[in-house]
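Protocol step 6 of 9: fold each sequence in the batch and record its C-alpha cells directly after the sequence line. For illustration, a two-sequence batch is reproduced in full.

Sequence one:
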Amino acid sequence: MKQILIVISLCAMWGCTSYANKEETKEEETEFLVTSPLQKDTTVTKDYVAQIHSIQHIELRALEKGYLQKIYVDEGQYVQKGQLMFQIMPMMYQAERQKAEAEVNFVGIEFQNTKKLADSNIVSRNELALAKAKLDKAKAELALAQTHLQFTQIRAPFSGIMDHFQVRLGSLLDEGDLLTTLSDNSKMWVYYNVPEAEYLDYKATANNSPIKVNLLMANNKLFPYPGLVETIEADFNNETGNIAFRATFPNPKGLLRHGETGNIQMTVPLSNALIIPQKATFEVLEKKYVYVVDKDNTIRSREITIAAELPHIFVVKSGLKKDDKILLEGLRQVRENQKIHYRFQQPDAVISHLDLYAE
C-alpha cells in the first residue's frame, strides 16, 4: 500500500513539474514587439490662455461741467464716427461765445478806424499795431469760447459699440466724469503668454513673417477666422518667465467682444524631439510609465515626462534616450523584472503605422 502511495505521489509531482515547465516554456516562447523612441524635428499645437481686447477701447468722459441735457444713443448701440452721443447743457458756453463775438466786432471796428488814421499819418504805426493785437486777442477768445461750446457735445471719435452708461439724463457732471466706453471691434487683439523656452524655439525657426494662430472660444468652438501674430512684447515677466504675444484677428461679424477669454492654438516647433506611441505607456497615480528592455532582455518600468500630446503619440520631455528599447505591445501580459523574447521594429515604421497598430 505504501509503495502505491509513493508511486502516486511521484506521478503527481512529475505532472506538476511538467505543467510548470510547459507554462514557463510558453511564457518564454511569447514574442513581444519592442521599439525605440523616434528622434526628429516636429511641430506641436499648443494651447495658451488668452485675453481678447478690442483694437480700440476708450473711455468717453465729460470735457466740461454742467447738467447732462440729452442722450442720443443707447447702451450696446453701434455708433458711427462723428455721431452725436451726449449733450451737456450749453447755455453758459453759448453766452460766452456771444460775448466773445461781440468783443471781436467791437475791436474790429476800432482796428479799422485806427488803420484809416494811420494811413493818413494821423496816428503812429504803433497805435495801429496795438489795435491789431487787441483784435487778435479778441479772435483768440472767440475761438476758445467756441471750443468750450463744442466740448458740450460728445461725439464718437471712431465707429464702434457703446458700453453701458455711467450717468443718467439730468446728472450733474464735473470735468472728467466717465460717461461710457466705446469699443472698435472690427479687429481684435488677443494677448497670450509664452514660456521662455518656447519663445526661443519659435525665434529659432521664425523667418520674420507673421505666423497664423487659431482661437478656441469659451464655448469650445473654433473661431472661423485665423489670426496673425504680429507683436511680441519687449520684456519677459521675471515672476512667471513668460513673454506676451499679441495676435490680430478679423472680426467681420462682430462675434468677439472686448474682455472675452479663450485659448490660442499655436504651432510650436520642436527640435530633435523624442516621439513614442501612446500605447507604449501606462499610467500609475497620474504618472506616465514605459517598460524598458535592458541588455539582458529584462523589462523594468520607468517614469517619463510628457512634453506634448499628439494623435496616437507622445513627445517625451525626460525619462528616455534615443537608444532605449521600450515594450510596444502586451503591456498587460508582463510583470516587472520579467525576462522576455522580443522582436525589434524600427521606430519610424512604428510611428508611420500607428493607425494600423492601434489597439
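Sequence two, same batch, same settings:
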Amino acid sequence: MRVYFDNAATTAMDDRVIEAMLPYMKLHYGNPSSVHSHGREVRSAVEKARKKVAELINASPSEIFFTSGGTEADNTAIVCGIETHGIKHAITSPIEHHAVLHTLEECAKKGKIKLSLLDVNQKGEINLDQLEGLLKANPNSFVSLMHANNEIGNINDLNAIGNLAKTYGAFFHSDTVQTMGHYVHDLKTLPVDALVAGGHKFHGPKGSGFLYVRKDKKIHPFIHGGAQERNMRGGTENVIGIIGIAKALELAYEDMDGHRSHIESLKKRFIGLLKENIPGVAFNGLSGDLDRSLYTVLNVSLPPSEENRGMLLFNLDLQGISASGGSACSSGATVGSHVLRALGHDPERESVRFSFSRFNTLEEIDYTVEKLRELYTVSV
C-alpha cells in the first residue's frame, strides 16, 4: 500500500481542476494583456476567476491579486506593507513559516524595522496580553501572525488579534496558507488587512496563489516590470494557475463541511489508535486537540527509540508511507524544525507530521498505525 500523509506540504490536484485548466493549455493561449480576440478571451477568464475568489471569501475583486504562491504573497504583503505605510516596528512569533520569519528578519537586518517576537509556551500558544503590550508601546506596528501553524496545527484567533491591531493602528497580515480552502474566510467581517493563499494546499496547482489586501490599506508593487494585476505585479499572468486556484477554491467551498467531517474522522481515529498501540505517544503543540487545531494536521511525538533515531521518516517511506518531519520547505535542513525548537521539544523523541486530505481513507490510517506499531514494538 502507498499512503500519502503529507498534505500540508502539497495536495493532489482534483481532476475537476485539471479539466478546468486544460482548455487554457490547448485552446485559449492568448496573452491576457493583448487587445486582440485571443487575448481578450483569456483576460475575461482571468477576471472571472478573480471575481469567483473574491465572492468565495466575501471580498471585492479589486482586493485580490494573483501571485506565484503563498511565499510571494507573504513577501509582498510584508515588504510592501512596511514600506508603503512607513512602518518602523513589526511583531510576529518564532513559529511562523519562514516565508514570514525570514522576510521580517531581512527587513530588520536592513534597518527598515525593529522586530519583536512574541513568546510561545510549550504548546505553541501566543500571549495576547504580550501582543497588546507591544502594540501599546509601538503603535502603528506591522503584525504578522498566521491563522494556523503548518507544523503543529495551532489555530490563532484572527478576530482577537485583528481587533487588537485595529485598536492600536497596526497593519495586520496573516499567513492563511494552511486554512484557505479548509475554513470559511469572510473578509467583510474578519479584521485582517492582508492574507494569502497557495492553490496547491487545497487541491489546486503548484505555482498559484493570491494576496488579499483591504482596499483602504493599499500597498505598492513588489514585482515591477509591467502593468499586470492592476499595476500590482509585473509579469505575464500564470493563466492556467489562476484558472486552477479559482476552481480549486470553488470546489473546496462547495462541500467544506463534508470534507471537514471526513478528515476529522480520520484524525480522530488516528489519535485513538496511536494511544492504544504505542505507549508513551504524545502530540506536539495543540495538534492532538480536535477543537483547537487544524483538522488536517497531527504532529506526533514518539518515545525514544534507538532503532528509529533519525531514521523514522525513512523507515515509514520503506513501508510506502509519505509523511514529514516538519515543514516541507525545511526538509533539506539539518537543524530540524524551528517550530519544535521554539516549543522546547525533547530531541530524543522523533516527531512526525501527518497531514490529511479528503482523498485519504480510514484503511490508510489503520495501515499506518500498524506499521508504526511494528517499528516501535522492539523499543516499547
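Proceed to step 7 once all outputs are recorded. Observation for sequence two: The mean pLDDT is 95.
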